[in-house]
Structures are given as C-alpha cells and as structure tokens.
Design goal:
This protein is an alpha+beta fold. Helix content is 30%, strand content 16%.
Length: 476
C-alpha cells in the first residue's frame, strides 16, 4: 500500500511539473512576445565609426569596381557620369555630403554603417534627416523598386501567364527558383520579385514587358520623369553594370512613387507565399527576405540588396500613429548589426521627431520642373539646371516645414572639409529590435524551465519504475 501511495505521489509530481511548464509556455511566453518590441531586449552596445563622406568623394560616381561586372564590350566605352544639378533636387540643404540634420534633432543612432541614407515622411514627402543624400552609390537589388514601377505601369493584367525559360533559370545572382516550362502569373512574379529578389523572376518579367533592353530604357526614362537624377539603370535586377548609380534621396523618391501604385504595398508586405512547381519539381514556399516585416511594429515592407561592389543596400518603410516613414541606406554593412536593425534604428529616430522639428528638404513630385510641398499643398520649383560632372553644388541653405526663405535657421549641415561630424561625435543609443538573433529573448528561460521539468520527470519515472519493480526478478 505504501508503495502504491508513493507511486501515486510521484505521478502527481510529474503531472504538476508538466502542467506548470505548459502554463509557462502558452501563457507567460506569449505575454513576453506581446510586450513592446521597440523596447531593448539586449542592452544596446554597438557603436560604429561615422562613414567619411564629408569630402564629397561620391558626388559624381561611386568608387571604381573591384571586379569585372562593369566592364564594357570591346570597342565600347563606359558611360560618362550623370551630370550634377547646380541646385540639389529637393532643396539646397540636401547638397551636403555629411550629416544633414534639423537643429535640435536627437542624435543619430550609433549603429548606422550606411555611407548614404535618408529618413523621409512617405506622405508629406518631407526629408527629416540624411547623410550624403545625393552621393552616388551602387543600388544592388534596391533598384528593383524602379523596375517594379515600370512593370506595374506596363503590365496591366495581373493574371497574364508567363512561361519560364532556361534563360530565366540561369540568371546570375539571387534566384527564387522558377524554371523552364513553369507557368506563373504576372502578379505571382511581381510578388516573388519583391519577396525573394529573384533575378530569374526579373528576367521573366522583362520578357513579358517586351525585352531586357526595353525595360532598362524605360527604367531610365522613368527615373528622369521622377527627378531621380542621380539614378541610371544598366540592369533590370540591380546587378552591377556600367554607369549604374543611384542615391539615398533618389531611392526615397522611387519608393514613394512605387507606394503610390495600387497593390504595391501588398507586394512588399507579404511575408509568405508559394512558388508553383515546374517539370518534375514540386512547388515550394518562400519567405520575405526583409526581416523588418517580421520584427518591427508597424512595418510596411521594403527591399534588400547586396553586391560585392555595392555593399549592403536597404529600403524600409513603417507606420506609427498614422505616420508613415521611409528609410533608405546605401553603401552599408551587415556587421555588427543587420541592415534591417539599422533601418529600425533610423525609423525610431524619425518617429521620435515632433511636428515642430524643422525638415531639411522635400521629395519632389514627378514632372519636368518638379514640385515640393505637403500633400494637397505644393509649390513649384524651377527645373534644375545642370552643371558638368565634377562641379560642386552650392552650400546647403536651411529650409523648414513652413517653406521659409533660404537662409532661415533650423538645419545643421556639416560642410566638407570643415572637420564637422567626426567619428567621435556623441551619438545616442539605438533601440534594439527583435530579430533572428534577439526576438526570442524569452526562449532561454523557457528552455531552462522545460529542462528542469524534464529532469524532474525522468527522475520521477526512474523512481516509479524502481519501486514498482522491486519485487520482481533481476537479470544477472
């Protein structure tokens, strides 16, 4: 009787431990995940040196390539750099090559590796802060945002079927995995292009658009119409090519115009999808490359990019309290923190600004002259005059939300060669965001408790078996 009672007590202990573990996992852990994800999960400890852009070394073009990706065919010459507007597009303050910040704005986050970046209001077009906004960099796959504008304007039937080819499947660089003979709708391909950045998909869509060269030509004409005058496309995918450039400012212009296309936000905001099979190959699932979508509250989407010469490039969009911001970053690195985490830091910085903070410029509207101003209230600015490549732009002059005359105070624009914005400039901490490496901060305590519970359960089972078998035979 005593043995039975002891066994019953041990079994009760095991049941209690299991129930407690389950209660923790299904109750406490979700509560932990539901807490504000913008609060630091790990103490911010990453500070990087400020990129040295104050010398305006990329005013006309990026540094020479490290590989042969920009070589031209025998008998041809590389295209000359795009001309630099005498008056910077979006406002003269944006002619600065270093940090361009509103006076009184909080310090920038310490983890930003991008040499060129902007933070802008997606709806009003106000540029809130920047570094080297018109410096010219290689875009990598962020150029696909421009490709998408062309494709969405031209391919009006989302149900149009495109058949994959061997050429699609053999494209260099990132591929989603479409194959010869596979059948895909235009909408599916657009979704895969934004989610998985597939160069195979880009080639298939360019064929549907009338050809590779036609698509590149239309990308360049579109860039001109958008006043993205730092942008030249040489490839449809963002793979490096002769003369291909963009700027952080241009990427913000392009992202804003892409978001104005019906259905685009859904394409960049989709987390998971299915790619149809082809031939003997079964279909498979894909997840969005942009980790901001999974980890940042209010994330809308964006675009990742990388080549050896471009480094890491990134566009991220998010909404908070009815305000939508877009962050663009060029010439960055994934170390010591991932690009989406750096974008999250800049988004937090932008969202921290109140309405009284001056702005540093404006994302202009499409057109020959371009317009600046808030939604519903625009003012026309003269068409930019162009200076030969290599000429310098005028010194930045402040502007603010009320469109005060040039010369008004309100913007800090460190000038080239003035020793401004040294790497030792005090900068505030960045909020850490939950990601692949931090989003499961609750997991380790949970695993520890489960291991303790499992150990207790195994010990109890051992004792139960030992007691229940004490009167039986033992092998020798």
């Amino acid at each position: 009787m005593l043995r039975v009672k002891r066994i019953g007590m041990l079994r009760g202990f095991v049941t209690t431990i299991g129930a407690a573990a389950a209660l923790f996992v299904f109750s406490v852990a979700p509560i932990a995940r539901a807490t504000d994800p913008t609060a630091p999960v790990l103490s911010p400890s990453v500070t990087v040196s400020s990129p040295g852009t104050e010398d305006c070394s990329q005013r006309t073009s990026p540094p020479p390539p490290m590989d042969t990706s920009e070589n031209v065919a025998a008998g041809q010459t590389s295209p000359a750099p795009l001309r630099v507007p005498e008056r910077p597009i979006g406002g003269v303050a944006l002619g600065g090559c270093g940090l361009v910040l509103p006076a009184g704005a909080p310090a920038i986050p310490p983890d930003i590796t991008a040499a060129g970046w902007t933070v802008s209001d997606l709806d009003t077009g106000e540029v809130l802060g920047a570094r080297d906004p018109h410096g010219r960099y290689r875009p990598a796959s962020t150029l696909k945002l421009l490709t998408m504008i062309v494709l969405m304007d031209n391919l009006k039937d989302p149900g149009q079927v495109v058949v994959g080819t061997d050429t699609d499947a053999a494209q260099e660089g990132s591929r989603v995995g479409i194959g010869p003979g596979g059948k895909y709708t235009v909408r599916q391909l657009m979704l895969f292009l934004m989610m998985g950045s597939g160069n195979d998909v880009a080639n298939a869509l360019a064929r549907a658009n009338g050809g590779y060269d036609k698509t590149v030509d239309e990308m360049n004409s579109t860039a001109g119409r958008l006043n993205a005058l730092d942008t030249r496309a040489a490839t449809i995918s963002g793979l490096d090519g002769p003369g291909q450039t963009t700027s952080a400012y241009d990427l913000a212009l392009i992202a804003r115009q892409a978001m104005a296309r019906p259905g685009f936000a859904e394409l960049i905001g989709t987390q998971y999808s299915q790619v149809p099979g082809w031939g003997p190959n079964a279909g498979f699932g894909i997840a969005n490359d942009n980790k901001l979508l999974f980890n940042y509250p209010g994330a809308i989407g964006g675009k990742t990019g990388f080549t050896d010469d471009a480094g890491n490039t990134y566009v991220g969009l998010a909404e908070r309290n009815g305000r939508r911001l877009v962050v663009t970053m060029l010439g960055g690195s994934q170390e010591p923190r991932r690009q989406w985490m750096q974008a999250a830091s800049l988004l937090d910085w932008g969202f921290s600004l109140d309405d009284s903070t001056a702005t540093i410029g404006q994302l202009v509207e499409p057109g020959t002259a371009g317009t600046v101003g808030t939604v519903g209230t625009t003012r026309t600015i003269p068409a930019p005059s162009l200076a030969p490549a290599g000429s310098s732009s005028p010194s930045p002059t402040p502007t603010d939300r009320s469109n005060t005359a040039p010369g008004a105070s309100g913007i800090s624009t460190p000038s080239a060669g003035a020793g401004a914005d040294p790497g030792s400039t005090p900068i505030g901490p960045a909020a850490e965001h939950r990601g692949d490496d931090v989003q499961f901060g609750w997991l380790w305590p949970t695993l520890g408790l489960l291991l303790v519970a499992a150990g207790g359960a195994l010990g109890a089972v051992f004792l139960v078996r030992r007691n229940s078998g004490s009167g039986g035979r033992h092998s020798t």
